[in-house]
Amino acid sequence: MRSTLCFAVATLLATPTFAASLPPRSAWQATSSSQQVPALAPAHAIDGDETTRWGGSFSPGQWFQVDLGKVSRVGGVRIHWDSGFAASYSIQVSTDGKAFHPVYTVTDSPGGVEYLVFPAEDARYVRLAAPARTADWGVSVFEFEPMSADDVARVDGLADAADAAAIWSDGHPHGVAGNGGERVVSIHLPHPLDIAGIEVTWAGPRVGATLQTKDAKGQWGVVDSDPGSAGDTSYLAAPTPFLASDLRLVLAAGTGAPTIARLRFLGPPRVMTAMKRYQIAASRENAALFPSSLHMQQVYWTDVGVPAGLQKAIFDEYGDIEPFKGGPLVQAIWRDAEGKAVVADNVERTHALRDQWKPMPSVGWHPQAGLAVTAETIAIQDGAQPVILVRHRLVNQGTTRIDGKLFLAIRPMQVNPPWQNGGPSPIHTIATSRDSVQVNGRTLLVPLTLPDAFGAAPFGDHGSTEITTAIAAGKLPGIASATDAQGLAAGGLAYEAHLAPHEHRDIVVAFPLGAHPANSDGSLPEPPPLDRTRVTAGAFDALADAVSREWQARLGSVGLSLPDETLVNILRSQAAYMLVNQTGHAMQAGPRNYNRSFIRDGAATASILLRMGEVKTARDYLDWYASHAVHENGLVSPILNADGTVNKGFGSDIEYDSQGEFINLVADVARFGGGPESVRSYLPKVRAAMHFMQELRERTMVPGYMADQPAPQRFHGIIAPSISHEGYSSPTHSYWDDWWALKGWHDGAWLADQWGDKELAAYARTQYAALRESVGASIRATMAWKGVDTIPAAADLGDGDPTSISIALDPAGQMDVLPHDALVTTFNRYLADVRKREQPGELFAYTPYELRNVLTYVYLDRPADAAELLGTIVRDRRPPEWNMWAEVVHSRLRHPGYLGDMPHTWIGAEYARLLFGMLMREADDGLYLLPGAPPAWVEGNGLKVSKLPVAYGELNMAARREGGKLTVTLDKGIRPNTPVRVFWPGRTRPASVTIDGKPATTWDADSIRIDHPFHTLEAQI
């Protein structure tokens, strides 16, 4: 196995040279419409190094081109894509660099390594043009290599040989020569290619196909075959890459002339895997009954689990469940009395959470007229282990009897799809019975409702015995267990339903998760037996009610009421998801792609939980992280594994925002979770982190630092380069680190004051002032060097990233460091870009981290723009009733693009922070009230905030407008002598203002300042 893997990797990284008739590579020059950073310059895509790359800007219309040095005969291109590949693009050529015309166009690029062939053209310039941005990280290429016309594949055996080269690109039908018998399409490669095989797209009816390759001895051997006539594509690939010189496609004898729309080489990574076999089977017979992700359709899910559990399930929008990370998918399939089978993927669905916010999700669907099916899931604690319960409730809502069967299919795949680092969940052995389903020797599920039938099946040759065929026929295989060397075995449980009008039947299954961590291979140890006196099908409602009460006790009393209760429900859901996403004390941003804890998102999450009463949870996280990640020299490791070990992966020692985030978390625990004395023990670690931040700044102050760069003063005195900002894959002088360092110095000075350490407080303020001065000077120097009128995100590039710049305002509080006019211009342009997303057909991808930009408009005194942006992003919850976001939102709902993870609770923390920030702001000069509250929030019953921890005490506030009178009330909780500033939601100057019955004398169109807390403020507007 290891030698095969090494061969595959070596094959992928070996760079062939297709230059027999082209100028030497040394004569080539690469240019592009843009680049992200110097490390992603165009030259890296023609340097013959498969580990360096070009990366374009995060915007539409980017292109990359190679000037070969002179006009040459070009017949193809090899592209080795990075993860940021263009699904749609064209290859264009030109002899003069001015007039380009396309020679190859594709709308379904698979990425990876592509060998493109097209009819030979005279060209000096070869361009890759990606007119539509299809990924949030832009377009990126490791290698782009034009191919000489003498080196590209030659095809024989087509009915019309004149256009043979077009079969690789144009998509028009190409008949295969021959009359009725076996037919052969030969492919000769003058220059051998490292490939996995060939994909054939058929233009009409076809017959079985076999791909063969000739070995070094001249013998033909079979690469792969696709028997029969089902499907409009044949994916013919070997299990490992191979070097091909001669290939032939052998078509079985049959009536009619087969026609081919397109041939496409399969690059080395696209080998035939077990999961690919499964995906091919899913595209053929009974395709509609397979999970949508097998058809390359995006799927959305939420997580279900007990707070801080070692394992959590994910439950998708179709009611499918993956009970633990990497576990098999269990899917419900309904078959009616007439023999029609259907799954939730292909009908309308409804989604809900218990009480509109608790992490107890459900999916409703109607497989046939009059029949309602609701799948709902909960997580309970059964002794020492968490258990996931799923109930499928079938209700006859019609007036006639309904008969049919509900099947639960156990499939060898995850809910988490392949493009999300998920995909297969190998089932090598499966054993089914009325009492349990065993997968790979471990109990997967316990049917609390005993099935009427059960069965299992191997996959068979090309899926010949795959279980879906039996289910579609209304039965299960006659064997209870199966073995499959490919890991593609499957099983099923069947439940008969005979429902009179208004009758219902419940089908409940339990997934015991055990009390121990996963083994090194990802498998789970055998779980202890369930308490069958308590965990029963009939007890589902009682158990669910108990879970609901537990969530109500933890988060139901969050004291916030708004006219749009959806906004409050989203807040509560996010806090609940934060607790479910935890593994032990480790805060994690998601349930699948995040098996480690970043201080960056963990600190943000913990700070929100403090606001919502989860003081112990946040304090435990701080204690856990500090005990493992803060080193003697003050370096705070940015990533810990769930077991508390320092993560040694990429970025483990070159992310420099973590010191400021750690100090900020200590301060937040002091403010909202017990007072400064409760964290006094952290004084040495806080001091050490401060000294490390000073060291990071002094690295850029050595004589001659970056002297070889233009305007080197832009680097002086700011934090050393790192990769904390996720947009930069190589160390960069990102201002992101400076904003967090400033937050660390600010909060460190406050902590030192509270602890009575005057020397440390003075030191922190001195360093704070020095860094502020350096950052301000750097920003101005970078703008001048780059010639831009917007705020740059990094000194190296002078590039824009409004979402990282927003950190400067909140929580860092550094708005006055930024040139005001440039700040306004930056966010005017950003909002214009957001509004472009509303245009019909617009392609885009963005991350809901942009929620933090809402508060920037609040700071700019533009509450209407803040409310608009909030509404825009809130609409992109998927599905909306589950109150959550993926880390990446794509404009196309079903585009199979990387979405990060979901529910993503760093994004949830940003949402909570903006919601609180629109209601109040803890400024250094006092407490601001309603700074971003739009007029709609004070209409009707108005808004209420109770028992909200703030830096000045506890906020208990109500605000309501009746007619022309705005009334704001404050109950006790804010410390005496705290200055208060109240903003008018409509930014209209009141005609009169009274405070506790006494007329006020001074206010303006924005707000009124009061030197101490009040009880009742009334403004006539």
Give a verbal description of the structure.
The chain is built from 16 helices and 46 strands. The protein is α+β, with helices and mostly antiparallel strands and 1021 residues long. It has a nine-stranded antiparallel beta sheet with strand order 20-21-22-23-31-27-26-25-29. β37 (920-923) and β38 (926-929) form a beta hairpin.
Helix/sheet category:
alpha+beta
Taken from the alpha-carbon principal axes, the silhouette is globular
Going across the biggest sheet, name each strand in turn.
20-21-22-23-31-27-26-25-29
* Number of continuous helical runs: 16
Write the layout of secondary structure elements.
Elements: H1 2-13, E1 29-32, E2 54-55, E3 62-81, E4 89-94, E5 101-106, E6 113-130, E7 140-148, E8 154-156, E9 174-175, E10 183-202, E11 209-214, E12 220-226, E13 233-251, E14 259-266, H2 274-282, E15 301-304, E16 313-316, E17 321-322, E18 329-336, E19 341-342, E20 349-354, E21 358-368, E22 371-382, E23 385-396, E24 402-411, E25 429-432, E26 437-439, E27 442-447, E28 453-457, H3 467-472, E29 481-483, E30 490-499, E31 504-512, H4 540-555, E32 559-561, H5 565-581, E33 596-598, H6 599-611, H7 615-629, E34 639-641, H8 658-672, H9 683-698, H10 735-755, H11 758-786, H12 802-809, H13 820-836, E35 845-846, H14 853-859, H15 863-874, E36 889-890, H16 905-919, E37 920-923, E38 926-929, E39 943-950, E40 953-962, E41 965-970, E42 980-983, E43 992-995, E44 998-999, E45 1007-1010, E46 1016-1020
Helix pairs in contact: 5-16, 6-7, 6-8, 6-16, 7-8, 8-9, 8-10, 9-10, 9-11, 10-11, 10-12, 12-14, 14-15
